[in-house]
Design brief:
2 copies of one chain form a homodimer. The first copy, chain A, contains 11 helices and 17 strands. Chain A is α/β, with parallel strands linked by helices. In chain A, strands 1, 10, 11, 12, 13, 14, 15, 16 and 17 form a 9-stranded mixed β-sheet that branches. In chain A, strands 2-9-8-7-6-5-4-3 form an 8-stranded parallel β-sheet. In chain A, helix 4 runs parallel beside helix 5.
């Protein structure tokens, strides 16, 4: 069921079949270096595999100093461990008997962390007997999962301490919505508030005599704000290595670096009706949840609409029939999850093909 | 890289891991019967594999009388032929040397049709020497691919006739946009106009002495209008077997039947912060290009927002932590394309698991 790769190593870029998910290796490597250099000796980096879904990317992040991977799903964590990652944190609540069984099985062959926000869930994890690092997720303003900061976290930590196989490993404090707030000033304010929630919770834990080894969180759109706030020990960025059209709409300024677009969908113009160029990449080639893809280095041309397998390019100086076009996905994570392969390109040649081994690992 | 199935045959519905793509076999079979009974002896049915991506579904459609499958991509057609389908029409323009090579190779092991809308493309297909049924796509109002109706189609048919390996097989006349027009009356008007374009083009072809064996087109939202208009010989519905929240928003009235929801995403409530239930199915579990998923048989509860791996349920009488919820995808085609398996359920038991063998077949 895995699709064949749309290219072979050594192929010229112009011969890659389309649509294809391209990774510009030079830009990708520069993004990696930018991030790891910036935070060196300040926080641990545990990049998020929910973005890349690929053990080859994970290996390269670990080589640069990452302590392990974050995952959102047990199946994603399994794919990372299968690919050689020894330390995974499922930065998410795992609810349901079968999932918990799989998580426990994984903990017998790797260092596994998991998040909780409910005492019933803690008890289910306790029953497995598996050694797990348990992080309490606190809601620092995103309004998704997590207990409210402060006392509820202390109560939950006490519940964790009742189970010999569970180790209270710290707090998960991630503000997902903040990543996509356009203004730097507003993002800064939101992360400052999040930091206050973390500090408050840590103070109460300390008062209760409970050590809080690690506070983990942060994403590509805010991580230097978390680093600056001093409340986090570990960051979880994922998109920084790839970028997308939505992140590009953020204001990027110090202390955040400017990452480069390293991820593209290569498409072909398959029809040229009057006033339009129709490309062979639609909804199944680039997720449109955060808007249409951008058109790379083709000023005046916009991707205006998508159907399942088609995209509409409109504007001035439209590309010709058969011409290839680079699209910048609106949102990198769900776009990568559509593909089986990264076609890794350098100097207009296919240098490598990386399997997206956790593609579809949703459960 | 193919993910394990989230269930085993014989499992109870409540034990299926989540998110999972569920197919309600009773509803699916009733939808199949409804469609094939309605159009029997009136038009040929060539269902669209772009929706189901699954040779098991194709086999069942062929058993009911389908003449073969429609596909949108060469890789999709390859997956169908690999799965035992002997007759495929790529209802799309195939542009690019590698794609055309693969199409030609496929034509040596199955009956293969393809659409064209440009003489350069016809010449490229001619050069392959492969026996291909070539359909001219005419734009009947959708404004996507296709030549304008009338004389341009005649000119293109003459170009096809120059190539001994190419057989002019007829017209592709599909109005995709019409499928989702809410009002029956408006949909009817649009298809009537499309029919006039077809009749006009057929008259000009006849005048030029060119036989037009088949006019093919139509989708789940309009097919009985095409049947009634009398200009089509073959219909290409895909969604009818599954349905989705977007199609459910259409007005459904005679001559169109009412199809049932047969496709669901099974999700689990993984967190219960105040006023919300967070489920484990987000953007990677249900495509939101046509809106958020519906919540099945849970009145007063809405799925209001999605992030990559999470969905927000809000409303009255929210489900409890660990409770399972059935979601109705906003758009079936790109949602099915996220999964490796249909979990086929009857009487709350997993009766079968069908591999989605053309999942990710985008090129």
């Amino acid at each position: 069921m895995t699709q064949r790769a749309p290219a072979a190593i050594g192929d010229r870029l112009e011969d890659v079949d389309t649509p294809a998910l391209l990774l510009d290796l030079d830009a990708f490597e520069r993004n990696q270096k930018t991030l790891f250099d910036l935070v060196k000796n300040r926080v641990r980096v545990r990049p998020h595999a929910k973005t890349h879904k690929c053990a080859e990317v994970a290996k390269r992040q670990i080589a640069l100093g990452a302590v392990g991977m974050c995952c959102q799903k047990v199946s994603e964590a399994e794919a990372m461990v299968d690919g050689g990652v020894a330390d995974v944190l499922v930065s998410n609540e795992i609810v349901g008997a079968r999932k918990i069984e799989r998580l426990a099985a994984l903990a017998r062959r790797a260092k596994v962390g998991v998040c909780v926000d409910h005492p019933d869930n803690v008890r289910e994890l306790g029953k497995t007997g598996a050694n797990l690092d348990v992080y309490i997720e606190i809601d620092v303003g995103m309004r998704r999962c997590g207990v409210p900061p402060g006392e509820p976290a202390v109560l939950l930590a006490k519940e964790i301490q009742k189970h010999a196989n569970l180790r209270f490993a710290g707090l998960q404090a991630y503000h997902g919505r903040a990543q996509h707030i356009r203004s730097m000033e507003e993002r800064h304010g939101v992360i400052e508030t999040a930091a206050q929630h973390v500090f408050h919770t840590k103070r109460l834990l300390q008062k209760a005599g409970i050590a809080c080894p690690i506070v983990t969180g942060a994403g590509s759109g805010t991580f230097m704000l978390e680093v600056g706030a001093g409340a986090w020990d570990e960051i979880q960025p994922g998109s920084y290595a790839f970028m997308d059209a939505d992140y590009a709409r953020n204001e990027w300024a110090a202390p955040l670096p400017r990452f480069e677009h390293a991820l593209f969908v290569l498409a072909t113009v398959m029809s040229r009706p009057a006033g339009m160029a129709i490309v062979d990449a639609g909804l199944k080639a680039s997720s449109v949840d955060s808007g249409m893809p951008g058109v790379w280095e083709m000023p005046g041309v916009s991707y205006t609409k998508a159907s399942d397998e088609h995209g509409w390019l409109e504007g001035k100086a439209l590309p010709a029939l058969g011409e290839k076009v680079l699209l910048v996905p609106g949102h990198c994570d769900p776009t990568i999850n559509l593909y089986d392969w990264y076609v890794c390109v350098r100097n207009r040649r296919v240098e490598d093909l990386w399997p997206i081994s956790a593609r579809g690992a949703v459960y």
